[in-house]
Amino acid sequence: CDHRFYGGGRSKGSYNGNGEGWRRGDYQCLCKPGFYSSRHPFGFNGSVMEVAYQEYWNNESTIYMDKFQCLKCADGCGNCLGPAPCLATYNWVFRITLLSVSVLCALFTISLAFYMYRHRKVKVLVFKVASPIFLTITLLGCSFMYLEMAAIFPILDTCSCIATKWTRHMGFCITYTSLLMKTWRVSLTYRVKSAHKVKLTDKQLLQWMVPILLVMLIYLGTWTLSAPPTAEEITDQYGLKFKQCSYNWWDHSLAIGEVLFLAWGIRVCYNVRHAESMYNEARLISYAIYNIALVNTTMVAFQIYLEFLILLIQVWRVLRHEANAIEGEGCCDTTYTCLIVPLVPLTP
């Protein structure tokens, strides 16, 4: 009862249910995990199978090959009784559309960054005021964040999850650190009331920016080496499985750090709310910081709410199970007492 497919892969297992040792035909064949039989979902009778195999060997019948074969389950199925899918299907039109938009935006920002860097020495007022180096860094950070969608295409696995974390958080750090450095320069200039004007060059700001980026690099590197995120399977309401990147305390710690970083950014933007800057650059940067702070805070609060709700549901299920068990035990004890106690003779 050991059938081998092409390539040596075994697809059936057999057992004797009588406990009397092996005897000819006195066994039942079952498809191994990952295989199924539509004609005999609960196993093959050994005696019938041997007769069919003997007829097949003598070229008398093809019943053995037609009815006693185990077929491979659909992708993602550990056990199955039929060809029904176990994995949720992707909406490829929607995914490809999002991927195309993300890649186009990334290419556009990279092109702008290249243009800004190439013309960084042009003596035009708007270029000099906007700090071409920091504009280039900001655009490169945006392109990193745009590539997050490309990191999870076409399927999700451990490498995709790692790439997703790196593109999202490193892009965030590069983009908003660059913007806040420019706003911080305006804040320092605006707060100083001496006769001498404080002037911070781009090189000095870069010296402040590098340690922040280095901290993010060390954090992401340690995360990747010690506990890399994996693609875990989740079941939807229809019982179909799909993959999602795991979330743990590394994600939560980094989210809290980003919220605190944005809180400092809001404070800097608040300090320069009355500062005059050419082309209202400081005000526009403040709007960008307020926007990302609101979005990040909302998403973190929503994620915490969902996790708390899931925890409550799990606790409720456990308590309901215990309550049902206690209720059943109480009913049994009460019934037993009501039936037995009257039968016990009372002593004088």
UniProtKB/TrEMBL annotation:
GO terms for molecular function: G protein-coupled receptor activity. GO terms for cellular component: plasma membrane. Its main location: membrane. It comes from the Eukaryota. It is found in: Cell membrane. Residues 137-312 form the G-protein coupled receptors family 3 profile domain. Keywords: Cell membrane, G-protein coupled receptor, Glycoprotein, Membrane, Receptor, Transducer, Transmembrane, Transmembrane helix. The keyword Glycoprotein applies. Transmembrane segments: none annotated. It is a multi-pass membrane protein. InterPro entries: GPCR_3_C, GPR158/179. Belongs to the G-protein coupled receptor 3 family. This is G-protein coupled receptors family 3 profile domain-containing protein. It comes from Phlebotomus papatasi. The lineage of its organism: Eukaryota, Metazoa, Ecdysozoa, Arthropoda, Hexapoda.
